[in-house]
Specification:
Layout (H helix, E strand, L loop, with lengths): L8 E5 L5 E2 L15 E5 L5 H4 L26 H7 L8 E6 L5 H13 L5 E5 L4 H10 L7 E5 L3 H10 L4 E5 L16 H18 L2 E6 L12 H5 L2 E6 L6 E9 L7 E7 L2 E4 L3 H6 L10 E8 L2 E13 L7 E4 L3 H15 L6 E7 L11 H13 L7 E3 L2 E2 L5 E2 L4 H10 L4 E5 L12 E5 L2 H8 L2
Parallel strand pairs: 4-8, 4-9, 5-6, 5-7, 7-8, 15-16, 17-20, 20-21
Antiparallel strand pairs: 1-2, 1-3, 9-10, 10-11, 11-12, 13-14, 14-16, 18-19
Length: 455
């Protein structure tokens, strides 16, 4: 007589991946409502759950390290975001909006690694081999050292990796990979988590670097369980508008490097090309003219200085409640700076709509943006232009004082390299500079800066 064993099921949160024994309206981990989905769970045998007793134990002071040489693709913008190099066993999750160029970036990265004599395995579950060949031809990818396979079976992929001596493995995308242990379709929480877990463990034990391409939801989050981001070593996002030429590669997590670095690429008909001088792109020649409400400032993304333009538009409000719209900066920060202007400078901000934007689509959070935002707002309010060859940098305190910022020497050096004539900086930063190519003016408060620029 056949035994009729009950199939084990569980409920997984589609937002965070938390497992629940029974259905409930709200996830107990992330608090999301109506996010639990039922999935079958493979029954684990006693052998699979047996604990290992041979784990090696050592004191930190006794651990011997071996010098590990990573892989450099030769794409400087790509390597910078990864932390300088790709280490053996390193796992990277790449995500971005549909059509942004994730597959293009991965195929060009595969070609760059293969040119360094690194064997590459490119697994695609979304494109056929002839489609990959057509795209490779358009991108001028030779691919002599790249093995391409079209499959979505997890067990088949792990067998291919085990049989081959690959240095880099790329999975495009993780949402298409499915394990035979689950009856659920690809892309569900259980499938994504199991596939990622198996591939990551194999990469760690086998020493091959692993790239996982992940889709994003309509909210801009990586599709599948949030735990996927915690499983990998590095999470990078490919940002930008698919209707425009420029793309930014930004690290959100990196166990082996800084998360503040960005890489800038330009999308052309034959693929992505690196942008060697990002400051020239973000300024776009606007520093040659004098316009009201436009101020150039210097920011540092990691160790890289960038010059960007802050734009402001101030107009008298037609409604009882004035509008405050911020693009690229925090909206609460804008409200705070407007309150400082009205309280410390007697500017009538309560009767005006204020719109502030960072040109070029960058999203910035550093305090050095405070003073240029304030100057741009007052310039638009008074209809007085600011010299396009003047750089403005500084943090603004609640009492209206201008506070010092970090890495001021790199910001000023970038401005001097691009032909700027004058730099407005906090007075406390002035003694740190030895730059002779530009005129340096130190200011102690907001009003002193406004007197220099729009007074």
């Amino acid at each position: 007589m056949l035994s009729n064993k009950k199939i084990k099921t569980a409920y997984f949160c589609t937002q965070c991946g938390a497992e629940h024994p029974k259905w409930q309206g709200q996830c107990r981990e992330c608090g999301a409502w109506n996010s639990l989905a039922e999935e079958k769970v493979p029954v684990k045998t006693k052998a699979s759950v047996s604990l290992s007793v041979s784990a090696e134990k050592q004191k930190i002071s006794d651990i011997k390290t071996e010098s590990s040489f990573g892989y450099k693709s030769g794409l400087d913008e790509f390597d910078r975001v990864l932390g300088g190099q790709l280490l053996p066993g390193m796992t990277v999750l790449l995500s971005g909006d549909p059509g942004i160029g994730k597959s293009t970036l991965m195929l060009q990265a595969a070609e760059a690694y293969s040119e360094q004599n690194i064997p590459v395995l490119y697994v695609t579950g979304e494109e056929s081999l002839p489609q990959i060949k057509l795209r490779a031809g358009r991108l001028h990818v030779d691919g002599k050292n790249i093995t391409v396979v079209n499959t979505t079976g997890l067990e088949e992929i792990t067998a291919l990796i085990a049989d081959g001596n690959y240095g880099v493995v790329l999975i495009d995308s993780i949402q298409t990979v499915a394990s035979g242990l689950f009856d659920s379709p690809p892309g569900t929480v259980g499938q994504v988590r199991e596939a990622a877990n198996q591939l990551i463990m194999q990469a760690k034990s086998g020493g091959n670097a692993l790239f996982l391409v992940g889709h994003v939801t309509k909210d801009g989050l990586i599709a599948g369980p949030k735990v996927l981001e915690h499983m990998v070593d590095t999470v990078i996002y490919f940002e930008g508008d698919s209707a425009h030429l420029y793309r930014m590669l930004r690290a959100q997590k990196n166990r082996f490097g800084s998360i503040a670095e960005i890489g800038l690429f330009q999308m052309a008909s034959d693929g992505l090309t690196e942008v060697a001088n990002p400051s020239s792109y973000f300024l776009s020649g606007s520093s040659d003219t004098m316009r009201t409400g436009a101020v150039v400032t210097g920011v540092c993304e990691g160790n890289r200085p960038l010059l960007v333009e802050i734009q402001a538009l101030v107009s008298r409000t037609n409604y009882g409640y004035p509008q405050r719209v911020a693009g690229g900066i925090d909206n609460k920060k804008l409200s705070l700076l407007l309150a400082i202007l009205e309280k410390r400078g007697d500017y009538p901000m309560g009767t005006h709509d204020v719109f502030v934007s960072v040109a070029g689509g960058l999203k910035l959070t550093e305090p050095a943006l405070d003073l240029p935002v304030v100057v741009a707002i007052v310039s638009s309010l008074l209809n007085k232009p600011v010299d396009g060859k003047t750089l403005v940098v500084g943090e603004v305190g609640l009492s209206g004082e201008v506070r010092p910022v970090s890495l001021i020497d790199r910001r000023v050096a970038e401005a001097a390299k691009l032909g700027f004539k004058t730099v407005i900086i906090p007075e406390q930063n002035r003694e740190q500079l030895t730059e002779k190519r530009v005129k340096i003016i130190g200011v102690k408060d907001v009003q002193a800066a406004l007197d220099q620029l729009v007074g």
